[in-house]
From TrEMBL:
This is Alpha-1,3-glucosyltransferase. It comes from Cinchona calisaya. Its EC number is 2.4.1.-. GO terms for molecular function: glycosyltransferase activity. GO terms for cellular component: endoplasmic reticulum membrane. It comes from the Eukaryota. Pathway: Protein modification; protein glycosylation. It is found in: Endoplasmic reticulum membrane. Keywords: Endoplasmic reticulum, Glycosyltransferase, Membrane, Transferase, Transmembrane, Transmembrane helix. It is a multi-pass membrane protein. It is an enzyme of class 2 (transferase). Belongs to the ALG6/ALG8 glucosyltransferase family.
Length: 89
């Protein structure tokens, strides 16, 4: 069922789950359910920045590179192609 705010992509949910496990290993206070809201520390900010960097390096950059490689390979890309649709959102 789609909520009022829209659907939550499964890849993003798994990505957030693994980031939570990673953060809980280094600083458990930063991911506690009721007390982590408003929690700030230098190590938490550093770890959150690294989770963004690692997500970009492992998921976003390879996908963009793959699309650019296919797009400029000279082969025609059909508009109904999976590559085209994965790059458009």
């Amino acid at each position: 069922m789609i909520s009022a705010t829209g659907a939550y992509p499964p890849l993003t949910a798994y990505q957030n789950y693994f980031h939570g496990i990673f953060l809980r290993h280094f600083e458990p206070e930063s991911v506690l359910l009721y007390t982590s809201r408003g929690y700030e520390s230098y190590i938490r900010k550093l770890l959150m920045s690294w989770t963004v960097f690692s997500s970009d390096a492992l998921i976003d950059f390879p996908a963009v590179l793959y699309f650019i490689t296919l797009y400029y390979s000279g082969k025609p890309i059909k508009e109904k192609s999976c590559v085209w649709h994965s790059a458009m959102p």
